């Protein structure tokens, strides 16, 4: 089966979040199910610089009149189609924001061009390959099924995956005439969203099937609390909504072979983690003692509950814990954590920014990872934590609730617990979860069982890839 994936970022070429990890790992996992997935992504400078011998396979004109090229290339086992359109993507900032951190004012045009290219590939643009199914990811690719619906490709199966409903791609109505769509596309049945143009809303309305990245999140987004204004539409499509939990690339995230950590180890050699623990403490200028070392690897935002961690930093230190933080985001939260590090030198350390190798060392060296998200479609850091014996402490929401087994009395007695869940997701909820973690940490055998059980969990893509393969087959059966 030939499947076209359309995504705005793909690891290891370009990454701002978990979307890239999924877009990079899923094609490799699907290959074992007889599926050839080719991924269309923009030709950002960071992408173009890493490609070896890209080959032009097609040219097309965007709906805005600009000539674009489709390049074919392979990288890290991925079969890639690159949209080479310098007008839209040859920029010095990030994929979505300029060097000052502001959204590009023409993001709507940039990603409409990507989606139009995806629809043209579905139409047969490439001379030797046509997809049977099209898979779009998030708002940046959500216009792909819209273009397919309104340009005569409504019989080509397609699916859209929502990685985070909070990001919707909503723009003013003045852009609609430039999108190259018929007038009836600007309606409640299409792109119109409270008078604006909604890219994600249009994709949710027109795609054959909608998936989210965990079963619990699929349920949550049908409610006003998590539906972000789209819960009415999502409920109307409930029969075509499915949650499939993400996996991780277990060849990249493997403590027994990871080149980014100080000492490799496995479930039967957990004692070797001590070297990583010392290396992590040294990297963050933390003292070495017997108290638990907590880590945070995250965007520093309200959604991720980072304000709760900042508020409890003094308490964590007073209880004998240490804290290492890697991330960037809200300046106020960055400042609060930097202030905590200043107050507690040797007990709290922070690195502003993102460092992929360092994130591996943090999972390998910290005792527990804090993920107090207020909502979390799936989350990947808790899966990395499970894989590395870094016990997750998570808010009971979305994919966090689906992937971490709470260390309550029954789960501990049955020896199936893998971490700590808490609700409500507020300061006191997190404090109570941390109290339970401190108590368990003081019993080395209990803590080791939590680590071992987590490391035994199947966090690979194997089962989820099978579910996607079955989904694609079910769509083809409807043609």
Description:
The protein has 20 helices and 18 strands. It is α/β, with parallel strands linked by helices and 479 residues long. It folds into 2 domains: 2-247 and 462-477, Rossmann fold (3-Layer(aba) Sandwich), CATH 3.40.50; 267-456, Rossmann fold. The strands form 3 sheets. Strands 3-4-5-2-1-6-7-11-12 form a 9-stranded mixed beta sheet. The chain has a 6-stranded parallel beta sheet with strand order 15-14-13-16-17-18, sandwiched between helices. Strands 8-10-9 form a 3-stranded antiparallel beta sheet. Strand 13, helix 12 and strand 14 form a beta-alpha-beta unit. Helix 12 runs parallel beside helix 13. The longest helix is centred in the N-terminal third of the chain and has 17 residues, at 107-123.
Q: Which SSEs are present, and which pair or pack?
A:
Blueprint: E1 2-6, H1 18-30, E2 36-42, H2 45-48, E3 55-61, E4 67-75, E5 78-84, H3 86-89, H4 107-123, E6 133-137, H5 138-141, H6 143-150, E7 158-162, E8 170-171, E9 192-193, E10 196-198, H7 199-206, E11 209-212, H8 215-220, H9 224-227, H10 231-236, E12 241-243, H11 273-283, E13 293-297, H12 306-318, E14 322-327, H13 331-343, E15 348-352, H14 356-365, E16 368-371, H15 381-388, E17 391-395, H16 398-403, H17 409-414, E18 420-422, H18 427-441, H19 444-456, H20 462-477
Parallel strand pairs: 1-2, 1-6, 2-5, 6-7, 7-11, 11-12, 13-14, 13-16, 14-15, 16-17, 17-18
Antiparallel strand pairs: 3-4, 4-5, 8-10, 9-10
